[in-house]
């Protein structure tokens, strides 16, 4: 199922791709590095019928870690209850990842390697949700320093002694389910808890703390008591959300659809003036100029490592592609570069200008044109390190 061929388009434009490693500096990241900005609401793509009237859930699993059918049926029931998807919800088992291939590879690197995205290209594009079942003991990389549990959005980055199953909505919504965590107990309930995070729970003032519900017995109850809370849950009825959590989802259902975000295949795309931000696990791309669905497909292909690197864990990378039509108007380059300073994502604010100017410069050279305009802009725009 994996598309191995890299298109000639990407090879050609690889010349204008620049890359910035996010966490490679010894300086501690600023606080918002680990938190989603308020306006970052990809969960609305799951909850609302627009822009996606359908939801496609891809479930990958390392060999021996895959969920039972009953778990996926419960997931379907939960999503059907709260996601307004008139054209349906598909939950698709995809890759079974060989143990050998998963050894020492961090979950997000595995995700990038095995994400396929929706396979029915003829249908209207659905919202996309990714679930990876893996074995932390197998994937553990002792060089890795930390892991982010996004479900609790205020929780600091911490060392990974063990890894709870966790959901990330920032940067890229996905569930990473370490099947070793609960010794096989309460697996269905844990899956629904993490899915609740992907739907935006819990984000209210009352009865909530650190992204979790304080109501005893609620599916979204505090993560710190995770296992203790869940041990009595197996066997309960489908929905174990408390009335406040249900009401919170109900509030979201009345919100307007996101005007500038959507999924194209597996890629989460956000449109801004003059540029788009494309997101995959630990990878972002700025596409400056007009964006096509093909650009998104080629980004996903290009980010799929031929051979995942065990050291590739917890670092994000930012790429930039500049379309040739943008380069025809060099007078506008400065204004475009300045816009990155106001992007909601820290990654873009920190690295956007540099990767953009690098990409412009390389592309001008590739076209046989003089990149002086970019070099003139560089000292005016870039902040000192
Ligand atoms: Zn949680
Ligand atoms: Zn609750």
Distance between the termini: 43 Å
Ligand identities: zinc ion
CATH architecture of the largest domain: 3-Layer(aba) Sandwich
Strand order within the widest beta sheet:
1-13-12-11-10-9
The helix content is 25-40%
Tell me the β content.
15-25%
Low-confidence stretches: 1-32, 143-159
Count the E strands.
Answer: 13
Q: What fold name goes in the CATH topology slot of the largest domain?
A: Collagenase (Catalytic Domain)
Specify the number of helices: 14
Count of the separate structural domains: 2
Class by SSE composition: alpha/beta
Overall morphology: globular
Sketch the major β-sheet.
Answer: 6 strands, mixed
Radius of gyration: 21 Å
Would you list the SSEs in sequence order as H and E?
HEHEHEHHEHEEHEEHHEEEEHEHHHH
What would CATH call the class of the largest domain?
Answer: Alpha Beta
- Mean pLDDT over the residues: 81
In short:
By secondary structure, the chain is of the alpha/beta class. Helices cover 32% and strands 18% of the residues.
Task: Outline the structure in words.
- It contains 14 helices and 13 strands.
- The strands form 3 sheets. A 6-stranded mixed beta sheet has the order 1-13-12-11-10-9. A 5-stranded mixed beta sheet has the order 3-2-4-6-5, with helices on both faces.
- With 385 residues, it is α/β, with parallel strands linked by helices.
- The radius of gyration is 21 Å and the shape is globular.
- The N terminus is likely disordered.
- One zinc ion binds next to helix 9.
- The site of one zinc ion (ZN) has 8 residues, from helix 9.
């Amino acid at each position: 199922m994996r598309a191995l061929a890299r298109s000639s388009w990407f090879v050609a434009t690889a010349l204008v791709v620049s890359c910035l490693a996010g966490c490679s500096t010894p300086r501690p990241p600023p606080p918002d590095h680990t938190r989603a900005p308020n306006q970052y609401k990809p969960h609305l793509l799951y909850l609302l019928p627009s822009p996606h009237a359908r939801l496609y859930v891809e479930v990958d699993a390392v060999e021996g870690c895959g969920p039972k059918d009953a778990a996926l049926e419960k997931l379907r029931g939960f999503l059907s209850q709260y996601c307004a998807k008139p054209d349906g919800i598909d939950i698709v088992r995809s890759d079974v990842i060989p143990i050998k291939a998963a050894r020492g590879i961090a979950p997000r690197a595995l995700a990038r390697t095995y994400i396929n995205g929706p396979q029915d290209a003829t249908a209207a594009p659905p919202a996309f949700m990714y679930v990876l079942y893996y074995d932390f003991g197998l994937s553990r990389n002792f060089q890795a320093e930390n892991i982010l549990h996004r479900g609790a959005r205020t929780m600091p980055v911490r060392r990974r002694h063990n890894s709870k199953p966790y959901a990330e909505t920032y940067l890229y919504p996905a569930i990473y389910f370490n099947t070793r965590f609960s010794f096989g107990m309460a697996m269905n309930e844990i899956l629904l808890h993490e899915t609740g995070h992907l739907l935006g729970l819990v984000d209210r003032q009352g009865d909530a703390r650190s992204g979790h519900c304080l109501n005893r017995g609620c599916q979204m109850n505090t993560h710190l008591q995770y296992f203790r809370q869940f041990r009595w849950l197996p066997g309960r009825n489908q929905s174990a959300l408390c009335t406040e959590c249900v009401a919170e989802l109900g509030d979201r259902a009345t919100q307007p659809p996101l005007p500038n975000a959507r999924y194209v295949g597996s890629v989460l795309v956000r449109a801004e003036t003059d540029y788009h931000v494309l997101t995959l696990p630990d990878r972002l791309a700025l596409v400056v100029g007009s964006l096509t669905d093909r650009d998104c497909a080629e980004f996903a292909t290009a980010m799929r490592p031929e051979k995942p690197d065990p050291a590739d864990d917890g670092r994000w990378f930012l790429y930039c592609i500049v379309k040739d039509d943008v380069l025809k108007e060099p007078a506008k380059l400065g204004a475009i570069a300045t816009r990155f300073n106001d992007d909601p994502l820290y990654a873009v604010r920190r690295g956007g200008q540099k990767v953009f100017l690098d990409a412009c410069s390389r592309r001008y050279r590739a076209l046989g044109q003089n990149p002086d305009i970019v070099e003139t802009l560089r000292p005016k725009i870039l902040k000192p390190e």
